[in-house]
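@channel anyone free to eyeball this complex?
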Amino acid sequence: AQSVSQHNHHVILSEAASLELGCNYSYGGTVNLFWYVQYPGQHLQLLLKYFSGDPLVKGIKGFEAEFIKSKFSFNLRKPSVQWSDTAEYFCAVNANRDDKIIFGKGTRLHILP
Amino acid sequence: GAGVSQTPSNKVTEKGKYVELRCDPISGHTALYWYRQSLGQGPEFLIYFQGTGAADDSGLPNDRFFAVRPEGSVSTLKIQRTERGDSAVYLCASSLVPEETQYFGPGTRLLVL
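replying in thread with the prediction:
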């Protein structure tokens, strides 16, 4: 069965710090990978996605993620965070030709002004 | 509207009662998904519709849960004989076609007393 692990449950950073949130998945076949974000009081929004092609994916608001197939990883990065990045971040995967998305438990990111 | 909408936004009920949760997908989206998010967890897949039919209901926890999408647009998630453990945020998502990005609604927060 597919599963997603997010290593950090709660991350606190100061503004301008660099960010990397870890995500590993377990599935041996072809996968689609996602990062979703949920800002306080708002609903889940897609941050970026990987379906195929260049393993370095750029998303909205300066975020990027790199798919490393050999490590089953899809870590999220941002070189310089802002206070407005405070949110909960979810890594997710769906197996190719499958319909449901499997989510990780989420990482709460708190940026200190 | 431009996005997925869900009603009600909040629902408080008593143990043993019946509840219905409604989802209006993005216009033209053929695929519709229901997820459940418990406190401190990521969203968990419940059921997926392609058109009017339930293509995958493997995530429904038991036979108290049922969902319909009679005209291939609006969907209703129905929970019979609610239990306190059913308390969660119920999320709906839709996509243009099954393989495409899923867009999430704001969710219905269900509290069973």
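from a first look: Chain A has a mean pLDDT of 92.
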